[in-house]
Specification:
The chain is α+β, with helices and mostly antiparallel strands. The chain folds into three domains: 2-140, no CATH class; 170-284, no CATH class; 296-467, no CATH class. It has 17 helices and twelve strands. The protein has helices at residues 2-15, 26-37, 68-81, 92-103, 115-123, 170-178, 212-223, 233-240, 257-266, 294-297, 300-329, 337-347, 354-374, 380-397, 403-417, 422-442, 444-460, and strands at 43-50, 55-62, 109-112, 127-131, 137-140, 186-193, 199-206, 252-254, 269-273, 279-282, 462-463, 466-467. A five-stranded antiparallel beta sheet has the order 1-2-4-5-3, sandwiched between helices. The protein has a five-stranded antiparallel beta sheet with strand order 6-7-9-10-8, sandwiched between helices. β4 and β5 (137-140) form a beta hairpin. α1 (2-15) crosses α2 and α13 (354-374) packs antiparallel against α16. Keywords: Membrane, Transmembrane, Transmembrane helix. It is found in: Cell membrane; Membrane. Its main location: membrane.
Length: 509
């Protein structure tokens, strides 16, 4: 064996020192792969002879990523026991086809002639098969990745609806889309992203509904991504959005397969990345960020009421503290007399103006919220509740803030939790501080001025060419059936016009 190794090294140095192609010389090809993988301790090399032919072969695999039982029973056993022909009769191309078509009972099998691509396959869980006399390597699909169970999404819990969420395995996620129902028009296109660390990405759409220009635009933006590594779909979201300076998300992220499939049936496009349970949906409009899949599972009257409450909660989240600051600092005359007297009595002894008072409580609430997310799950909620009560009560007793300010801040915090999309809630929470500053400087006029600037930004904002505040601007009367209220399903006969779907009619209505 040592003599063979020395001979192989000599041939490697003299014949193919800089070539990336396999030669068909067993010692040279095996040494090429060893040179590339020598710094990986978990790579296994298993050399053997094919049957009683005397033909040398070897398999290369990662012991922690591969299914060892499959390698033993379906690869090694088949090759070592299944071929007994004379090596002078079977060799080269004939041997290659015989092994490929009759010996190996493996469904995922392809040939690779370059060393680097073969090494890449091994490092992602495949098994490379090297056979003497064959100038290519068989790449066998033996990956056995560690996956978690299909659980309900933590960030998008529902009272009524499916309990399945995406996982970190891309093949599992695409199968969850397939399981939504039989549909031969569901297209799933595979792409590769990352320059140093390659990852699989798929684009999903319904080819008889989605607009072709939208599909091409999604492909174009993804193909322009040039990063070493994309560990999570949030990287893609930031790189493909229209305006990266906007505080509003222009790409929707979700863990729910039912939400993704519902978006596909409207004519939207989904992006799924291997290694993350969060899928992306484009294009997105502002009203989508305030909608929940549960809106369509319940009857239209309660769903419409809850959706209106979400819009109200979004308004309170954005303008609650700023309206309080404006009334207390500038427009005391607009407050009813009894309420004004009550507020004045509670503010007696408070040393700070309304803006500083609000900032103290808002910053404290944001810190508690972040701490509750980062703490271990058993104590996180308890810490958040207890911390909020203790800090609020202590601040009132110390005379730092007034009781009514604690009520306003608590109502604002609760309203922010009513927004279904976490990233949309973050956007409104950030803008809330700008609204508070505007109210402290100019009162209600500052709030109105801030609101007008915000509206002008939203009107100009687009997501993959679709106006962000549609169907408000531009106005589309037909799309208002699923905007602030959700009309009965029998009345929603058409898909949203803003997406320009190829098939505008929802079949079966």
């Amino acid at each position: 064996m040592k003599e063979q190794t020395v001979q192989g090294e000599e041939q490697y140095e003299s014949v193919s020192k800089t070539l990336d192609q396999f030669t068909g010389v067993y010692d040279v090809d095996l040494l090429k792969i060893k040179k590339e993988l020598e710094h990986n301790w978990d790579v296994q090399f298993r050399e053997f002879h094919i049957g009683n032919t005397g033909i040398r072969a070897a398999i290369v695999f990662l012991k922690e990523l591969c299914d060892k039982e499959m390698i033993d029973k379906h690869i090694l056993k088949s090759l070592m026991e299944g071929l007994t022909e004379n090596p002078t009769i079977i060799k080269g191309y004939e041997l290659q086809q015989l092994i490929k078509n009759e010996v190996l009972p493996v469904s995922d099998l392809f040939e690779e002639s370059t060393v680097m691509k073969s090494v890449g396959g091994v490092l992602t869980g495949a098994t490379a098969l090297i056979i003497d006399g064959i100038p290519s390597v068989f790449i066998l699909g033996t990956a056995q990745g560690k996956t978690r169970n299909l659980d309900e999404p933590i960030s998008e819990a529902l009272v009524r609806g499916p309990r399945l969420g995406f996982t970190e395995n891309l093949s599992v996620n695409t199968s969850l889309l397939r399981q939504q129902g039989e549909n031969q028009h569901l297209a799933i296109i595979k792409m590769e992203v990352g320059t140093r660390i390659k990852k699989e990405l798929v684009i999903a759409y319904i080819d008889e509904i989605a607009e072709p220009d939208l599909i091409e635009e999604v492909k174009k933006r993804i193909s322009k991504i040039n990063l070493d590594n994309l560990p999570e779909s949030g990287y893609i979201e930031q790189l493909i959005e229209d305006n990266y300076l906007s505080p509003f998300p222009q790409v929707q992220s979700t863990e729910r397969p039912d939400r993704v499939f519902a978006a596909l049936m409207e004519g939207r496009v989904a992006i799924l990345l291997d290694g993350t349970p969060f899928a992306l949906i484009v294009p997105v409009t502002f009203n989508m960020l305030l909608q929940s899949p549960e809106d369509y599972y319940e009857r239209w009257l309660p769903s419409s009421l809850i959706r209106l409450l979400r819009f109200l909660a979004a308004g309170i989240t954005l303008f609650g503290p700023s309206i309080y600051i404006a009334f207390v600092s500038f427009h005391q005359g607009l407050i009813p007399t009894k309420l004004a007297l009550s507020m004045m009595s509670t503010r007696q002894g408070v040393p700070f103006p309304a803006l500083i008072e609000a900032l103290i409580m808002e910053i404290a609430i944001e810190i508690l919220r972040e701490a509750g997310l980062r703490l271990p799950k058993p104590i996180g909620p308890t810490m958040g509740i207890v911390g909020g009560l203790v800090i609020g009560e202590a601040a009132v007793q110390a005379g730092i803030v007034s009781p009514i300010m604690v009520i306003v801040v608590a109502l604002t915090a609760i309203s922010s939790f009513a927004i279904p999309q976490y990233n949309a809630g973050i956007s409104l929470r950030m803008l809330r501080f700008i609204a508070m500053l505007s109210a402290a400087l100019f009162g209600l006029y500052g709030i109105i001025l801030f609101f007008l600037f915000l509206c002008s930004h939203l009107v100009k904002l687009k997501s993959f060419g679709v106006p962000f505040v549609s169907p408000t601007v531009p106005y589309r009367a037909g799309d208002w059936k699923d905007f602030m209220v959700r009309m009965p399903l029998k009345m929603m006969k058409r898909r949203p016009k803003l997406l320009k779907p190829k098939d505008t009619i929802r079949k079966g209505n």
